[in-house]
Every structure is written in C-alpha cells, then in structure tokens.
Amino acid sequence: MLYRIEKRSDISKEKSIGIRALAILLALITSGAFIFLLKLNPIDVYLSMLDGAFGSPYRIRETIITAIPLLITSLGLAIAFKMQFWNIGGEGQILMGAFFASFIALNYPDIPKPILLTLMMIAGILGGGLWALIPAFFKAQWGTNETIVTLMLNYIALKWITFLQYGPWRDPDALGFPKVPNFSPNAILPKVFGVHIGWIIALILVVLVYIFMKHSKKGYEIAVLGESENTARYAGINIKKTILVSIFLSGSIAGLAGMIQASAVSKTLAVSVSGGMGFTAIITTWLAALNPIFILVSSILFAALIRSGSFIQTAFGIPSAAASIIQAMILFFFLGSHFFIKYRITRKTSAKIAQGGE
Amino acid sequence: MKRVSKVLMVLFLAMAVFLTGCSGDSGQEGAQDVKAGFIYVGPTGDGGWSYAHEMARQYVVEQLGIETLYKESVEEGPDVENVMKDMIDQGANIIFATSFGYMDYMEKMSLEYPEVKFMHCSGYKMTENMGNYFGRIYEPRYLSGMVAGLKTESNVIGYVAAFDIPEVVRGINAFALGVQAVNPDAVVKVRWTNTWYDPAREYEAARALLDEGADVIAQHQDTAGPQQAAQERGVWSIGYHSDMSEAAPDAYMTAPVWNFGPYYVEQIQKVIDGTWAPESYWGSMEDGIVALAPLTENAPEGAQAVIDEAQAKIKSGELKVFAGPIKDQEGNVRVAEGELMTDDELLSFDWFVQGVEGKINK
Description:
The structure holds 2 protein chains of 2 kinds. Chain A is mainly α. Chain A contains 14 helices and 4 strands. Chain A has helices spanning about 15-35, 40-55, 55-80, 90-105, 115-140, 145-165, 200-215, 215-225, 230-235, 240-265, 275-285, 290-315, 320-340, 350-355; strands at about 1-5, 190, 195, 345-350. By secondary structure, chain B is an alpha/beta fold. Helix content of chain B is about 40%, strand content about 20%. The termini of chain B are far apart. The chains are: A mainly alpha, B alpha/beta. The interface of A and B includes residues 47, 182, 267 and 315 of A.
C-alpha cells in the first residue's frame, strides 16, 4: 500500500473549520499530556494562559506591545513574499534599522523631540531598506539565492551590533559592563493610551500596505512577478526595478520596526531589539496568507501566545524551556492544519496503481 | 458566544483578584500578602549562580511559607523591566534581581513602582525603595587561591572570567593574592568570556588556558564548563558559586560559595513586619553569606590546616585580603604597607595585582 499527498482542488468551509478545530483540540490534548507530566493541571494552565495574555488592562497592553514589532515586520515580509522573494532577513533589517536610528539618537540627543524622532524614523527606514537592498541587488543582477543571502546577513547585522556594544559604543558609565548608553528622553517615542505610539504607526501601515498591494500599479506588478517571471517580462514589467523597489520597501518597514523597538522598548541599542521577531514574523505572515488585515489578527494572536508562555513561567514556576515546548506544540498543530487544508493524503491500493499505470 | 463569556469570566476573576489585592495593601503586610519575586540570569539548573539563588528561594518558602515567583534565563537587557512588571502584576511586592546587568532597569522600575520593594544583587545603586546586597566573596576566593597555589606544579593557574567589571577584577585579585601567600612564583592567567552563562564558551576558554600550561583552573562563571575541561585533562579545578564536585569529581578541589537563604529570609521578614528599609549590604564570611566549600580529596595535602588558620584569621578580622603592600602588574606599589583598601576602592577595582596575566579594557 502506498500513500500519496495531493493538492485539494477546493475545500468546503465546514471542512476547513473542522480541520482547524481538530488541530486545536489535538494541540491542547498533546500539550496537556506534557503539562500533566510537569504535575500541573492542564485546564488551570490554559485558563492561566488566557488570563496572562488578556486578563487585565496591563496584560492587554503588554500583548499589544509585543504584537507591534511582529505586525510591522510581517507587513514588510508580506511585500517580499508576494513577489516570491523569500526574505528571511527580517531580523537583520530590524537590527540595521535600529542601528541607523540609534546613530541619530546617540549623536544628537538634544535636538527637539519631534525633529529627532522624525530623523530617527527616516534613519530606521533607510537602515532596514538599504540592508535589504543588498540581497535584492544580487538577486536582480546575478540571480543569487535570496533565502541564503538574507539569512546570512542577519548574522552579520547581529555581530555588528554586538561589536558596537562591546567596542566603540560601550557605555563609559556602566563600569565596564558592555551596553550601549541609554537614549535621551527626546529620543523616546511618546505613549498614547498607555502604549507607545508604535501601535498607531502599525495600524496606519496596515492600511497603506493593503492599498499598495491591492490597488497600486506597483503592487500589481509585484503580484504578477511573483506568479511568473515570464508573464511579467511579457507584460513589459521592469523586473530588476520591481525587485529593488519592493525589497527596499520590505526591508524599510522592518527597519522602522527596529527604530520603534530601540526607541520605545529598549530605549537603547541592544541585540535584544529584534527579539527573534524577524523570524517569528515569517510565521505570522504565512498564517495570514500575506493579507495585511489577517496579519493584524495573526500578529495579535501570536503575541498573546508569547505573553501567555511568559506568564505561566512565573505563575506556575515552570522552566522557560517547558513553556517554549507548550508554545511550540500549539503552533506545530496549528501550522500542520494548514497543510491538511491545502493537501490531503490518499491511499493508493494496488488496483488503483494498476489502473493509473504508474 | 461561549468563548466571549469565558473571556469575560477570566476578566472578572482578574478584576476580583486585583481589587482584593488592593484592599489588603495598607502599610503593614501579613505573611499572606507578601509575595517575593526572584529573577535569575541563567537556568536554575546551571549548578552555579542561579542555582545558589534558587536554593535560597526554596529556603525562603520553607522558612516563611510565603508565595514566591521566579523567572530564569532573563537576559541582562531591557526585557528585565517587563519581567519585573509582570511579577508586580502577579502580586509581587518584593523583587530580588540577581545579576549586575539588571541594575539600571531595576532603578527605573523602583521609581515607577514606589510601593514595591526592590533588591539588587551585586550592584551599587539605591533609591527610596531599592537596596543592594552582595557578599565579600573575595574572602573565600582568597582561601581558594591558597588551595590552588599549593596544588599547582606548573605554577600557571588559569582563571576563566566573565566580564572585566570591578566585581570580577576584585575576585581575580583576591584569588591571586591567596595564591601568592603560599606560592610567590605562581602566575594567574585570565581569559574573558564576556558572558555569565555559556557552558560551551566557558569550557573553550578553560581549554585555551590549559593549552597555555595551566594545571589548576579557577572560574568566575555560572556553569561547571571549566571544571569539566580540567577534569578531561586530568588536572585540577576550583569551582564557584555552589559545590561543583558532582560535575567534575576527579578535578574539583573546593569553591567559594554563596548562602543567600538566611539573608533573604531576614529581608522578607522585615517586609512582613513593616520594618524594611533599603540598605547596601556587603556580608562577610563571618556573617555566613559567603563560605569556602569543604575541600575534597583532590585538594593538596596540608591545605586543610593552612585554610583553617587563614579562615579563622579572616573571620576574626586579623587577616585582611586587601591590606598593603600590594603592587600592580607594572610593579608600582598601589597600596602601601600598613594601608587597607576602602570599600569604595574595592567597588571600583580596575587594575590587576602583580602576578596576574591579563588585560582590563578601559
């Protein structure tokens, strides 16, 4: 007997909801078994996870703060992914955005707040955009593999920030402890309703990216190029230019996320500015099928998962590794359900093989 | 609909907890109302620093029966602010942050949450509601240096060290002075790892020192990685933080160790009684917050007697580790005969004593 995976031509709504529900149930049961091994009550832990992500105004704010960089970076990645340009370099683009913004913040700490923040934003956008332009240029010019190049550039960015932290930008007042000095108050983003202004920027970006992807000429060209390079060429689209422009945009949005994190959350430059969001955003972008509105939803849900994982660590005193396992299991089943919505596994009997003549 | 009602229920419960939490919060707090949060830089299973604090936390629970929270592997960066906020959100009213790099973030949080008590380990900043505490680990370190000095045959002792901050520099100097007290010819070679917790990097640094001829490895690191490197080469080691004999039974001789439990109990008891006030505590061997772990059979013959004598003198105050004359690496006398280094000088130590091979970045 043989099994084969085939693409579903279409799937009814009930069935796809059914698969998702089953996936969530399986996730809860499997991680429940794991929680049970830790000698805890799974139901308590799940309720506590919900409580930890949304249980009080403070917790909701924290969830939103976690969602902001995820959402913004995802929006950037969506543009690249639409063109089938696999930008795995969100992490590096966030860091370089943060680096450019920090350069302004540390060198001109005393210029008026609105001007300083605007300059930092522009710097952040440039930092992320230029960093992304490197793999885009290689791809457009020589057809290099962007997955590898963007991935590797992450580590270069990471080590660059580490170098600054230990070397030229080390805070002389920290008694030798390797950290970059804190930003001046002028370089810190203000808060609106208790959450830094990044949430407004993120929402504006959702709208802008939506319009760009669905209703602009460039957005259309990106989609066409993503579907087929030949079609794009036949339609008279300038392929090189489209790659360069769209990847600059993609990286610059991630760079803006870096500026926001450095300014509002870290209040300095540190390797933790990106916090793995460049990688996590790949997941949220895919879960949302590159749709900006859905990205908003998936980012908030994912942020809730991150926050609740952190919450149960302190609430139940479980090791951080165990909390990560629970998070990962839930995610694993959820992503797995996507596979079964798109594909199905059929069993080929020998009779069928004979018929098919394979 | 069901999901909505569930969320509402959780919200309602959270509110109820929040409100009851507020009503009990008037001046004096009973043992039931006191919740202590502990923040660790490494995993509790590191067998070293975070483990020592975790043991102390368990001691607190045993002695006082209060609720505690802890979070392990918290990076020394802005994220620790969120960890503190989360703990306060979950009801913590005294927080112990147990790594140097948490200091500035804790200072900020202490200003933001005046009703919460903050305790920072190994730092020097204080506010109205933030104190700091540490131990004179350099005293047992000096003794461990004596053990190393008696043991070494190559007269090269390797020292795997985390960051070139005063705390670590002070430890290296105390160790080297201990070595020289029994073996004036031995040198202490230093390797920086720039991390508190990284078993692989610590192990590699120890191997590099062994390659340079060291036959005793000491460490200012949170894991037993260097111990294992020494054991693999069939040479000897001095641990740190906790008894590391299990990690390297054939190499480990002794270690300067911490005993935070009684201090934590005392501080939390003060919070319960409503008498807590921020202090800057630097406990000694006499106080019991630091000690030298029992010598194993790997330790050199006769070491026990030497250590016993020196230990008694340190406890009585007759022997001061940083008493002159002390020369720096270039041979200049930095502390004259008959002089003592002050605590301020110790807390900003940024030079090595003679006999240490290594460099401090300034």
